[in-house]
Amino acid sequence: MWTIPNEGSNRPSEGEAAPHDGPAFDLAVCAEMVFLDLPIEERLRRIHDLGFQVEIWDWTQKDVGELVRTGATFSSMTGYLRGGLAEREESEEMLRTARETIPVAIELGCPRLVIHGAQLDAAGQAVRPVSQVTGSMWMNATRTLDELAELGESNGVTFCLENLNLLVDHAGVPFAHSSETLALVEATDRPGVRMMLDLYHAQIGEGNLVELVHRAGSAIGEVQVADVPGRCEPGTGELNYPAIASALREMGYTGVGGLEAYASGDDVLALERFRAAFTL
Fold first, then answer.
1. pTM to 2 decimals?
2. Domain annotation for the chain: domains and CATH numbers
3. What is the per-residue pLDDT across 133-144, written as a single tens digit (0 to 9) for each?
4. Strand-strand pairing, 158-162 and 193-198
5. How far is residue 48's CA from residue 36's CA, in Å, rounded to a whole number?
6. 122-175: per-residue pLDDT in tens?
7. Are 260 and 33 in contact (CB under 8 A)?
8. Is 89 exposed, middle or buried (0-12, 13-18, 19+ CB in 10 A)?
């Protein structure tokens, strides 16, 4: 069995099975999507106090020093500000803004930096939509990911390429399908680049999630979850997250499971439902 290193306190030691009376993995919650009536720093404190790690998006809209002072443990954050993977001009901008982001990630102690095939606007759409991915785009993407891997490995962080869905949330993004994302990560074949396996997006675009997590295997850097439809916490839609959690544990996954979802009602209850879905 393979394992993915993770810094959290719930991780079993090497060779030790995950406990059956608590979450099978370390769990994180995206602070951009819960406790929305609170300032971002207070959201982090609430998430931390409830026993979760924290995910954030754009660091430029936040006071980084205040984030540090919350005492939260950071799991992942957006790893670039502009740019994409399809064209060289875009990828140069992605690399440049990734370099700007790394010192912030180091200050926060955040090990994983999320990237996408394209720069996203405020609505989640591609700033430069791509209707067809060409061979030259694939070559540019692999070259850029290799450069990001070098950058990550030199600075102790991992860039995680996230799969997205094109049907509901992220039209026009290249390399969005999980098979494309996985192919790029495997082609790079370096520890500085992994896959941010988003199961919400994969369910909308593909389905068959248990097979997908097995296929992704050691390419996974982190797993993100939300139910479908609605993008709320597990138990509000069609997905059987306890079965998916069992499949992840059986295959040896010891990384983080991150809730990137809105609360269907009470925020604390939503987080407890998330925890329960991953308690085996």
1. 0.91
2. 26-277 (3.20.20.150)
3. 999 999 999 999
4. parallel
5. 15
6. 889 999 999 999 999 999 999 999 999 999 999 999 999 999 999 999 999 999
7. yes
8. exposed
